[in-house]
């Protein structure tokens, strides 16, 4: 991995809920082209970290900075849709699809994140949007093909099996042409074959140089895909390193054993 530049810097970020810290003084830097895994026991603060990066939550202290092509800026005070337009895409935990829409329509919503006009004006089919709509449709079909769902374009999204719903969410995120892709537990609940398909897709994206962050519990999955791993425990960043380094890290082993004993 060549460290050409930094895509994301999280600087001493803290966030609490009802007086309890979900994240406390967490810092990390993600390099361009890197796949960074974020692991940690339940309640460690992983989803909170992703929400602070995507803009669905704001930090109480600290800052999140983001930049590609030499343009670096603080993301503070930018709404999620603005961050999406800057190239930050998130695939949330579970399945979040637009019910009552086809697979293709779900992906087209992702493409609208990067256009000026938005989905509604596009849906009204004003003349100046038609050309853009055709391009978005083509992009969405390409994204579906990319994740192996080309034959499912006109099916209702909510009747797809879980593995394909997850793939559909990924296609939607890819259609927005992200520069930083956040994947929150993308493999959870998937069967072994679906998991393998997903792992290969993430490997392809990594080989193409897409910068990704990945929250995942499955260490085999993480060890295979991540360049580096950040470990959170009780809202703190307790370790960072390569998968090999993290596997042998005593603080990490203690955190997981502690979580097992408590659970
Ligand atoms: N919106 C919220 N309101 C109140 N508490 C919250 C909220 N979001 C997170 N928390 C709390 O913050 C802590 C960290 O939660 P978070 O979901 O970030 O952890 P996580 O590492 O993603 O956990 P999991 O692996 O279970 O998904 C938890 O104690 C959780 O209860």
TrEMBL record:
<dbReference type="GO" id="GO:0005524">
    <property type="term" value="F:ATP binding"/>
</dbReference>
<protein>
    <submittedName>
        <fullName>Amino acid/amide ABC transporter ATP-binding protein 1 (HAAT family)</fullName>
    </submittedName>
</protein>
<dbReference type="InterPro" id="IPR051120">
    <property type="entry name" value="ABC_AA/LPS_Transport"/>
</dbReference>
<dbReference type="InterPro" id="IPR027417">
    <property type="entry name" value="P-loop_NTPase"/>
</dbReference>
<dbReference type="GO" id="GO:0005886">
    <property type="term" value="C:plasma membrane"/>
</dbReference>
<dbReference type="InterPro" id="IPR003593">
    <property type="entry name" value="AAA+_ATPase"/>
</dbReference>
<dbReference type="Pfam" id="PF00005">
    <property type="entry name" value="ABC_tran"/>
</dbReference>
<dbReference type="InterPro" id="IPR032823">
    <property type="entry name" value="BCA_ABC_TP_C"/>
</dbReference>
<dbReference type="InterPro" id="IPR003439">
    <property type="entry name" value="ABC_transporter-like_ATP-bd"/>
</dbReference>
<keyword id="KW-0813">Transport</keyword>
<feature type="domain" description="ABC transporter">
    <location>
        <begin position="8"/>
        <end position="259"/>
    </location>
</feature>
<dbReference type="GO" id="GO:0016887">
    <property type="term" value="F:ATP hydrolysis activity"/>
</dbReference>
<dbReference type="Pfam" id="PF12399">
    <property type="entry name" value="BCA_ABC_TP_C"/>
</dbReference>
<keyword id="KW-0067">ATP-binding</keyword>
<keyword id="KW-0547">Nucleotide-binding</keyword>
């Amino acid at each position: 991995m060549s460290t050409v530049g930094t895509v994301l810097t999280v600087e001493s970020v803290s966030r609490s809920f009802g007086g309890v810290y979900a994240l406390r003084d967490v810092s990390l830097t993600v390099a361009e082209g890197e796949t960074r895994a974020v692991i940690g026991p339940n309640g460690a603060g992983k989803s909170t970290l992703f929400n602070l990066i995507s803009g669905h939550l704001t930090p109480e202290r600290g800052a999140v900075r983001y930049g590609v092509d030499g343009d670096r800026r603080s993301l503070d005070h930018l709404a999620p849709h603005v961050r999406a337009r800057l190239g930050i895409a998130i695939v949330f935990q579970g399945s979040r699809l637009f019910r009552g829409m086809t697979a293709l329509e779900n992906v087209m919503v992702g493409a609208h994140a990067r256009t000026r006009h938005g989905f509604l004006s596009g849906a009204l089919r004003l003349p100046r949007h038609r050309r853009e709509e055709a391009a978005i449709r083509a992009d969405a079909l390409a994204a579906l093909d990319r994740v192996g769902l080309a034959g499912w374009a006109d099916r209702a999204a909510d009747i797809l099996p879980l593995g394909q719903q997850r793939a559909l969410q990924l296609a939607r995120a890819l259609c927005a042409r992200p520069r930083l892709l956040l994947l929150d537990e993308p493999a959870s609940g998937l069967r072994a074959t679906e998991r393998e398909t997903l792992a290969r897709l993430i490997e392809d994206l990594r080989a193409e140089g897409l910068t990704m962050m990945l929250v995942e519990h499955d260490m085999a999955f993480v060890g295979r895909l991540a360049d580096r791993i950040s470990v959170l425990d009780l809202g703190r960043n307790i370790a960072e390193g390569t998968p090999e380094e993290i596997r042998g890290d005593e603080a990490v082993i203690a955190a997981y054993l502690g979580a097992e004993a408590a659970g």
